[in-house]
């Protein structure tokens, strides 16, 4: 199988949550996940995997609400990554500025949503 023309790296799996404090308490106290860092998002490292809690957006232009999970792929240049996906017939959303970086969403053939993330 030929190497893809663009390099994607694993970033994280994350959930959107409505109440960050309640969610952190659940993942720490009930599931025993150690909190690694906290700023806009809460980060846990679980068996070598980065798991994040991200505040759910509460506006009409929200990218997502609570109750979903995504595979997030780290990229160095989100515009190049979007162009690469589109050259392969994959439609990705226009990159949107978020706190800490830019995000673009796309779907796999079964409709599962994935995320491109470029940290700033």
How would you sum up the major sheet?
A: 8 strands, mixed
Q: Architecture, CATH level 2?
A: Roll
- Report the CATH superfamily: 2,3-Dihydroxybiphenyl 1,2-Dioxygenase, domain 1
Spell the H/E element sequence: EHEEEEHEEE
Instruction: Please write the CATH class name.
Output: Alpha Beta
The average pLDDT value, as a whole number, equals 87
Strand content: 35-45%
Can you count the helices?
Answer: 2
Outline: elongated
Query: Nearest-angstrom radius of gyration?
Result: 15 Å
- The computed structural class is alpha+beta
**DSSP E strands, number:** 8
CATH topology description: 2,3-Dihydroxybiphenyl 1,2-Dioxygenase, domain 1
Helix content: 10-25%
pLDDT under 50 segments (min length 5)? none
Could you tell me how far the N terminus lies from the C terminus, measured between alpha carbons in angstroms? 33 Å
Number of domains: 1
Strand order of the largest sheet: 2-3-4-1-5-8-7-6
Q: Descriptors for this entry?
A:
2,3-Dihydroxybiphenyl 1,2-Dioxygenase, domain 1, alpha+beta, 120 residues, 2 helices, 8-stranded mixed β-sheet
What does this structure look like?
The structure is a single chain. The chain has two helices and eight strands. Strands 2-3-4-1-5-8-7-6 form an eight-stranded mixed sheet. The chain has helices spanning 20-30, 78-87, and strands at residues 9-17, 35-38, 42-46, 49-55, 69-74, 96-98, 101-107, 113-119. The protein has one domain (9-108): 2,3-Dihydroxybiphenyl 1,2-Dioxygenase, domain 1, CATH 3.10.180. It is of the alpha+beta class.
């Amino acid at each position: 199988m030929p190497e893809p023309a663009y390099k994607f790296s694993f970033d994280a799996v994350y959930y959107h949550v409505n109440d960050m404090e309640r969610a952190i308490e659940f993942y720490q106290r009930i599931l025993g996940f150690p909190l690694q860092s906290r700023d806009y998002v809460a980060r846990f490292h679980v068996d070598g995997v980065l798991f994040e809690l991200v505040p759910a957006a509460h506006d009409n232009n929200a990218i997502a609400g609570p109750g979903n999970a995504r595979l997030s792929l780290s990229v160095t240049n989100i515009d190049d990554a979007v162009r690469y996906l589109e050259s392969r017939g994959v439609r990705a959303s226009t990159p949107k500025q978020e706190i800490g970086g830019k995000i673009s969403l796309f779907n796999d053939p079964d409709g599962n949503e994935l995320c491109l993330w470029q940290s700033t």
